[in-house]
Amino acid sequence: MNEPIFVxxxxxxxxAVGLGGIQGALFASGFRGxxxxxxxxxxxxxxxxxxxxxxxxxxLLNVTPTxxxxxxxxxxAGGAALFGMLLAGLFQRLNAVIVGLDALVIGMFGxxxxxxxxxxGLPLVPAVxxxxxxxxxxxxxRDMIMGLPVAIMHVGSLYAVAAAVGCLVLAVAELLGVNxxxxxxxxxxxxxxxxxxxxxxxxxxxxxxxxxRRKVAVETSAIPIVKP
Length: 228
Hints:
The structure is a single chain. By secondary structure, this protein is mostly helical. The protein is built from nine helices and no strands. It has helices spanning 10-29, 39-60, 71-86, 88-92, 95-119, 124-145, 160-175, 180-200, 208-221. Helix 6 packs antiparallel against helix 7. Mean pLDDT is 84; it is low at 1-5 and 211-228.
């Protein structure tokens, strides 16, 4: 049996790859001291972030990696990484632009991953899982290569959660009969908005230790204190 064919528009995929490459290069260019990277190192991080999400998506779906079927993906990721490296000083002063692009990249990779999983016949929950892995995959690979703590595992503004909500909205919309392209646009918008709001208002999931301290505080509040 032939597997279902799902083609993400090349221009849309390359936009996501390019923006991811810029984000990765900006991130890598920001290190100073002993952790600083040379031009090759920055370029590699940019390429990994730009192409990592698509590679992880296709590996999970057990299909031929789309990013390796055309010269344009690697060229776009490499060119975007070089662009981000050269303009690192400018973009560091435009933090709002960086955050906005980052949120958009998460939304695009998540939407492409979920859409492809749905078209290939995966149920809703696995499709959302594939989308989230595609959204955060580049960042995870980046942190692993650079020997850093994986960002999504630590307290911070909503990252994987934003991707998960956007992917879930996309999957539900498609299940309700919305065209997959329109559902993808909705999913990208939802992820982007949630991510931006989380950064602006410094919203994050509760820290595990904070939950433990809260539980202890509630339990100990019932203990009477005898004053001498």
